What does this fold into?
Amino acid sequence: NAGVMQNPRHLVRRRGQEARLRCSPMKGHSHVYWYRQLPEEGLKFMVYLQKENIIDESGMPKERFSAEFPKEGPSILRIQQVVRGDSAAYFCASSPRLIGGAEETQYFGPGTRLLVL
Amino acid sequence: AQTVTQSQPEMSVQEAETVTLSCTYDTSESDYYLFWYKQPPSRQMILVIRQEAYKQQNATENRFSVNFQKAAKSFSLKISDSQLGDAAMYFCAYRSAAGGAQKLVFGQGTRLTINP
It folds into this structure.
């Protein structure tokens, strides 16, 4: 069973460009989470999605950032008009569908390192 | 809002010795989950161990064990017989058990160095 896949692993953008980060959850997982890690810091929650639904976007900046998890295909985190402060590692995690409310562990992908020049 | 604090930015230990990493958290909830994740130089986040708050018994996974003190809101990680491959950043994380609450709240991390 393949783990969580993220691509690209490294992404370089110039200020003002768009960045698209992709995440394919583990097989059988229908919950996706995005986290951001600034240099020398812990991970910060951005958004939680299920198929075709955004469940919690309380950690997402109000402007320029958007996320989706379509019925088919990977989850996409999109950053428009990138600025230098967007340079960070972006991690995706997935977990299985909750059954009876049981807790499910989140499994992380390898991350995408975004560098904005 | 819940917060997680790791007060040790860096720790070091001799190979084969035991080391304990500290973590405290702040919450008003009674039911939640706690995790330790390891981030080696590859920066992959790897789950080390997890603890359900309703369980009094401390979780163990091979050389890794926790000391969960619910009243003190403390959740330390003990690594026994340290190995060179244990060198990494270690993050403590909290997750509410409330319905629909799925996000992990992470501490700032502790960088663990293993001295040969």
In short: The two ends of chain A are 37 Å apart (CA to CA). Chain A is about 0% helix and 50% strand. The mean pLDDT of chain A is 91. Chain A touches chain B through 26 residues (CB under 8 Å).
